Structure formats: C-alpha cells, structure tokens
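Example record for the data management plan.
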Amino acid sequence: MSAIDRNNVHVSGTGPKAMVFAHGFGCDQNMWRLVAPSFEPDWRVVLFDHVGAGGSDLGAYEPVKYASLSGYADDVVEIGRDLGLKDAVFVGHSVSAMIGALASLKAPDMFESLVMVGPSPRYIDDGDYVGGFSEAQIEELLESLADNHMGWSAAMAPAIMGNPDRPELGQELANSFCRTDPDIAKAFARVTFKSDNRRDLVKVTARTLILQCSDDIIAGHEVGEYVHSHISGSRLVVLQATGHCPNLSAPDEVTSAIRAFA
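Corresponding structural encoding:
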C-alpha cells in the first residue's frame, strides 16, 4: 500500500509550493478544516492522518516502527516523496510539531519551513527543564487512558481544549479522541508523552515559526520559550488564543500568523 492510501492523504489547491498540515494526538486531518482551505488559492495543500487516526489504514500499524516519533516522521517523508515535495512548509500541531522537525532532519530539501503549533520537545520536567508535568503525573495520565479510554477522553478533552465558555469545542475534541482506535491511542499516547526530542531542536535548520497560545496546560510558556531558544533563528509568536487547539478555537488568528510567516 502506498503512503498516499495508508495515511489517507488529500491534496487540494494549485499553488507552486506545498503546505502540509499534520494533526496532534487523538485528532485527525479534520482538525485543520477551519485553517487549511484558506491556503488553497496560493498553495498545494496536503492533509493526512497518522496511522491509527481518521481514515488511515489501521492494519498498517506496526508497534516497533511506531514505538518512537521517528516512525511517524518516516511516514511524513514517504508521503513527501510520493508527492514530489520540495521546499514545502510543514504545519504541525502539538506532537506533530516534533514529528515535522524530525522529518525535516531526515529530508532537508523537502521542508523549507516549519510551523510548530503548541510544540513540546519533552512533557516531563527534568532538572531545570520545565515540561509542565512530573513523571508521576504522566504515568497517571497514561494509566487512566489505558483503563478507560472513553472516560479519559470525556474528562481530558475539555481541559486540553480550554475555552470553557465554548463547551462545543471540548465536545468535538472528546469525540475525536473516541474515534481513535483505543489500542493504538494508548501506544501513541505513551510515545507522545514520554518523548524527549530536546537534542533534536538544535539540529533544525528549516525556517521555524512557533505559535504559542497565551494559556495552554499542555505546552506552557516555558516550553515555547525553550523551543524558541534552541532552534536557531526561529520566530516565536504568542497568540491571544487560549487552550491547546487554536486551529479550532482561533482559526483566523492561526491562519494570519502562518500567512505572515510563509
């Protein structure tokens, strides 16, 4: 099976260069529906689902391959090669920000620029590094997800989304979590929240924009500043948007920031 079919790739737009949108944990390409279409007049817009999400081929999931973010980055590079991408812009939300960084290191000519939306190279605190969570908190989160996927989704989605005055957003994220294959979601959660890609940041040479929400319980200000300080020449923009999913809660602000950069 080709990467195009395996990852449920959809291409639209007629621009000379491509812009690839990648979703975060528990989501799928539908999470970009309020942002991606506005780039179609000027860009070749590429949307896809990570294996285990959305319309991807669940049978393609390989525990060994996807035991690290590198396996997901390999998929991104394979998609790019199948589409003949060169000097493209990669827009990655949450964990996909790091997946995009890894993909840019694997195929430097493929991605000219990176847009990282709510990135975190490590979620667990480590000495002077503030990731936002203790080891015990992450283990508790992972155990809760493993014990009750549906209950975890219903409880965590509103907190991750933020914007309590707009409960429909939290409900949409919860529904997205619940559509994800539970077994793959458990494994992907462990890979995501136990990852440590701090050493990869200094290797990134692609132009990089970091979009940091003003109040985000998953990737706080310290994390955004850390990413910014460790990627040479990167640009940090703090959005007025709150929560961890500004592509849903503040799509116009995200679109404007990307357009000003790209």
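Summary line stored alongside the record: Residues 3-133+196-261 form a domain with the Rossmann fold fold (CATH 3.40.50.1820).
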